[in-house]
Amino acid sequence: MDYKEEADSIARRAYELYKSTDWKVAKSSTENGNIDHFQKDVKVFYKKSTEFDGHIYRAECVIDSPPEKVIRYILPCPRGLRGEWDKAVKESEVIEKINEDLIVGRSATHSVAMGLISSRDFVDLITVRKYPEERTISTNSRSIQRKDCPPRDGFVRGINYHGGTFCTTVDGDPNSCHVVNIVQTDLSGMLPTSVVESALPASLIDFFHDLDTALKDHNMNGF
User: Fold this and answer.
1) CA distance 185 to 162
2) What is the model's pLDDT at position 38?
3) How many other C-beta atoms can be found within 10 angstroms of the C-beta atom of residue 6?
4) What is the mean pLDDT of residues 160-167?
5) Strand-pair partners of 167
6) pTM, 2 dp
7) Residue 120 neighbours by CB under 8 Å, 6+ apart
8) How confident is the model at residue 219 (pLDDT cuts 50, 70, 90)?
9) Whole-angstrom Cα distance, residue 150 to residue 148?
10) Distance of CA 82 to the CA centre of its chain
11) In the predicted model, what is the mean pLDDT of residues 25-51?
C-alpha cells in the first residue's frame, strides 16, 4: 500500500463529510442536564453511511484551546496524548511513523454499555492536514490491514471508515476552536442496532467532556 496516496484519499473523503450538510440531529449534551458540571453544548448529528450498513456520526463543540493543542491531545501516544486522558481508550500506540503528519496507530477501547459492547481494537492510518485559509487543522483516519497487527485475544477487531476531527479557530478568539468529530465505526460482532445507536452518540458527548477536562489540566506534559 502506498500510504501517502491512501492518506490523500482519506483526507479528501473526510473533508467531504466535514463539508456535507445533510445531517440529522441525534442528541445534545443539554437534553438531560450537564455531565459533572460540564457546561459545553455538544450537538451530535447522524446520517446513513455509504460505506457500511450503519450510520456516520458528527459531534460538534467549542473548546477553550487553540487547534494545535487540541490536535495534540487527540493523536495517539507518543505522537499525541490521547491515551493519557480519554476514558474510553484502553490502549493507544503508534505502530509506524511514516512522517511527522502520517502514522499508523493502534487503539483499543474499554467495554461500554454495561458490558454489552466488549473491548474493540482498531488499526488506522492517520494523517494530519492543515487548511490555513480556513484556520483549520484536522486529523483524518481510516482502518487498514497489516500483517504485523493481527486481531488479538480479548478484543473484537473493529473498522473505522473515513472520519476525522476538524479544529477551526473561533473568530476573534485564537485560544478557542470549534471542534467537529466525525466517526464512522463498524463495531463488528453480533450487536443489536439499538445498542450501537444508543452507545455511539453518548460516547461522543463523553469524548468532549473528557477532552475539555484534560485540556484544563495545565500540568499534563508541560501544558
Assistant:
1) 9
2) 64
3) 15
4) 97
5) 137, 179
6) 0.91
7) 108, 109, 155, 156, 157, 158, 187, 188
8) very low
9) 6
10) 10
11) 80
In the chain, % of residues over pLDDT 90: 69
> What does the pLDDT read at residue 204?
93
Residue that has been written with the C-alpha cell 485564537 in this structure = 174
Measured over the CA atoms of residue 201, residue 207, residue 210 and residue 215, the dihedral's sign is negative
Length of the chain: 223
Count how many Cα atoms sit within 13 Å of the Cα of residue 111 in the half-sphere of its side chain.
8
The distance in angstroms from the start CA to the end CA of the chain is 37
**Average pLDDT, integer, range 152-169:** 95
d(CA 170, CA 167): 9
| Residue showing cell 460516547 | 203
**Nine-digit cell string for 174:** 485564537
Express each pLDDT in 40-96 by its tens digit: 899 999 999 999 999 999 999 999 999 999 999 999 878 889 988 999 899 999 999
C-alpha cell at 188: 463488528
Residues near 150 by beta carbon (within 8 Å), at least 6 away in sequence: none
Report the alpha-carbon distance of residue 113 to residue 140 in Å, rounded. 26
**Cβ 122 vs Cβ 107: under 8 Å:** yes
Q: How far is CA 114 from CA 110, 111, 117, in A?
A: 11, 7, 8
Nine cell digits for residue 114? 454495561
Spatial CA neighbour of 199 closest among 108, 116, 90, 109: 116
